[in-house]
Each structure stands twice: as C-alpha cells, then as structure tokens.
Amino acid sequence: MRRVSEAGTVRSTISGGYTDQMLGPFQVTAAALDPAAVGAAVARSGDGAVSTFVGLVRDHNAGRRVLWLDYEAFAPLAVKTFEQIAAEAAGTWPGARMAIHHRTGRVAIGEASVAIAAASPHRAHAFAACRYAIERVKQIAPIWKHEHFQGGDIWIEGATADPSDDGARLAALERACA
Q1: CA 73-116-49 angle, 5° bins
Q2: Which of 12, 33, 126, 154 could bridge to 51 as Cys pair (CB 3.0-4.6 Å)?
Q3: What is the CATH number of the domain that holds 30?
Q4: Taking a C-beta distance cutoff of 8 angstroms, is the pair 78, 103 a contact?
C-alpha cells in the first residue's frame, strides 16, 4: 500500500513496516508508474484542479499487432528536459506545478509508459499545462521507443525538436490550447 503525504513523501508498506522515500516530480525509471502518486506529488490545498495524463502501451500501431515496447532514455538529460517543460508551463500558466515520470525498459501492453500531472488553482490551466507537457515530451525529451510487433520490430523516431526552438514550443502551445 502506498500513501503520499502533503510534502510528497511516499510511505509504502514493506514486510509489515513502512519506508519513506521522496517522490520526485521528474523521474525516468524502469519501475512501474503510479499515476495517483504522480498527481498527489503536485497537489496542494490551494489547487482547484489536478489534471493527469497517462500514456498507455496499446496493442496496435500502423496496422500491426504490437507485442510490447522498450524505452531507452538519457535519464539525466531527460530529467532536465522535464524541468524545462515545467518551467515553460509555469511561465504560461502562473501557479501551475508539474510532475513527469517516464518508464524505461520493457513495457507491456496496457502498462503506463508516461504519467504527467499538472496542478493549478484553475482547472483550465491544469488541463492546458498537462496537454502542453506531453506535447513537449514528445518533441524534446531524449527518450526513444523500440516497438516489437508480430513479425518484427522498429525504432520509433524520438525527440526531433531543438529544446530552444520557439516554433516547436509554439506548436505545442497551440495543441495544448486547442
């Protein structure tokens, strides 16, 4: 059982006892994602909304039956990229706070590959910031997807935009506010 405190500490039951660990807002991990904990990590008493996005591995893509995905990432740079995305969102939607967690390694059909939470005093800001974050993760995070399907496998193109490219940032902003 996991419980998240107001300070973002995760308390997990382990062999009859408890262990505390900080649930960082930006993580790249091989462990299964806990979307509720990601949302709880950013929620505060003054918020009017916490919006979450959970990206799941689906069983099909491009007309093929997908068997599983493998994700690779340059974790230190990915975490810095997540921090940049959160800073961009906070600059656009004042008061918005964000957490982004992404899986690496083998991820099975139906499992979460990414979990994003945006908290804000206003629901519209939480929704928009969350949508903006996934658009930017796809654009600029150094994370690569290896799709395994019936009859083969293929690397799916990862981040292609320069993190400082204002055109890419504006395109993500347009999609977030559409």
Answers
A1: 165
A2: 126
A3: 3.90.1170.40
A4: no
Could you give the number of structural domains in the chain? 1
pTM equals 0.84
What confidence tens digit (pLDDT) does each residue in 51-69 have? 999 999 999 999 999 999 9
* Sequence-ordered strand ranges (E) for 5-141: 9-14, 17-22, 26-29, 49-56, 60-61, 64-73, 97-103, 105-108, 112-120
Q: Answer yes or no: is 164 within a domain.
A: yes
Q: How confident is the model at residue 6 (pLDDT cuts 50, 70, 90)?
A: very low
By C-alpha distance, which of 55, 58, 64, 65 is closest to 133? 55
The residue type found at 9 is T
Question: At 153, which helix (H) or strand (E)?
Answer: strand 152-156
Backbone angles phi, psi at 40, to 5 degrees: -65, -25
- Written as six digits, the tokens of 130 are 């969350």
